[in-house]
Amino acid sequence: MKIDYIDPELLEETVKLEEESALVYAKFSLVRYPKAVIYPVVREGGGLVDENDHFVNGTGMFNYPIGSHEGAYPTESINEEEEEVVYLGAFFNVWGHCITDFLRRLWFLNANDVVQNLKQLKMVYVLSYWGPELVENFKRILSLIGFDVNALVCIDKPTRFKCVYLPDSCFHTRYYSRKSPIVYTRQYADLIEMIIHRVISNSSGNICHRNRKIYLSRSKWSSAFGREMGEKAIERVFKRMGFEVLYPEDLTLDQLILTLQQVSEFASTEGSSAHNAIF
Questions:
Q1: What tens digit of pLDDT does each residue of 240-249 get?
Q2: Is the pTM here over 0.85, yes or no?
Q3: Cβ distance 217 to 247 under 8 Å?
Q4: Distance between CA 163 and CA 4 in Å, rounded?
Q5: Predicted confidence (pLDDT) per residue in 206-231, tens digit
Q6: Which end of the chain has the lower number of beta carbons within 10 A, N or C?
Q7: For the residues 41-69, what does the mean pLDDT come to?
Q8: Under 8 Å CB-to-CB from 187, ≥6 apart: which residues?
Q9: SS3 at position 140
Q10: How far apart are CA 235 and CA 238, in angstroms?
Q11: How many alpha carbons fall within 13 Å on the CB side of residue 46?
């Protein structure tokens, strides 16, 4: 691994991560929370609070617990619903998180014994203030995995359910806890492989060659101005090295995945574009 470009303060940790396998094998289940409350996002936070008013770690945005015990909502404002639901997590419209953190509880659709028991239940989530609804590419990811996107329900008011089922996490980063190990599981890898397989199966062409060199640029990102300094210069460097410069904003999700299935070399600056390397 070439390391001379890495910030010296991050060098030791980066080398350690490169040398260690991040793949772990584990069995998962769904944890049952009777009479739990799902809170929508307020500034940050949101998530699941159990019947004893304890926040369930890893269920909110940025893992900041905002529930009745912190006064974000008066307890008398809680809606009461006599139904059982599956809670998928707190989503927001940042692509890198959509294909990592937000897939971490969706493994259960591959577990036939689990799905048979839960497929009749309502699937719910909370959404941040960073967008009024899920972005289209994430909806496409969900549909490829097997969700009926139109049947997913966004919880926008504090709601107590008869029972909330919470799938274990199959992907761990330090996004929710600085002490968390950085690992993924076979179940997460299976989700990514399923997405790729279904995109290829739905396409009219065949993936015969992996000889394209692709640089994914961030210069067409809507928030690039004032943040992505020197991106055009970087594009020119990669063009001189024989790379095609592509922009994720110009491609559908299926087109992007099919393109990445043809590459021999992939490059991007750090951020959501680089996360596409998993495809």
A1: 999 999 998 8
A2: no
A3: yes
A4: 52
A5: 666 778 999 998 887 766 555 667 78
A6: N
A7: 74
A8: 26, 28, 107, 110, 170
A9: helix
A10: 5
A11: 24
Residue 30 near residue 166, CB atoms below 8 Å: yes
Alpha-carbon span 212 to 259, nearest angstrom:
9
Place of tokens 């809507």: 222
pLDDT of residue 1: 57
Q: Is the dihedral of CA 177, 183, 185, 189 positive or negative?
A: positive
Identity of the residue numbered 231: E
Model pLDDT, residue 67: 47
With the C-alpha atoms ordered 127, 101, 104, 69, is the resulting torsion angle positive or negative? negative
Instruction: Give the pLDDT of residue 46.
Output: 82
Confidence of residue 73 (pLDDT cuts 50, 70, 90): low
Determine the pLDDT at residue 37: 94
Question: CA separation (Å) from 64 to 3, 56, 60, 154, 237?
Answer: 35, 10, 6, 19, 41
Count CB neighbours of 198 within 10 A.
16
Cβ atoms of 96 and 272 closer than 8 Å? yes
**Vertex 78, ends 39 and 60: CA angle to 5°?**
10
Torsion of CA 223, 227, 230, 231, to 10 degrees: -30
Q: What average pLDDT is seen over the chain? A: 82
Distance of CA 168 to the CA centre of its chain: 14
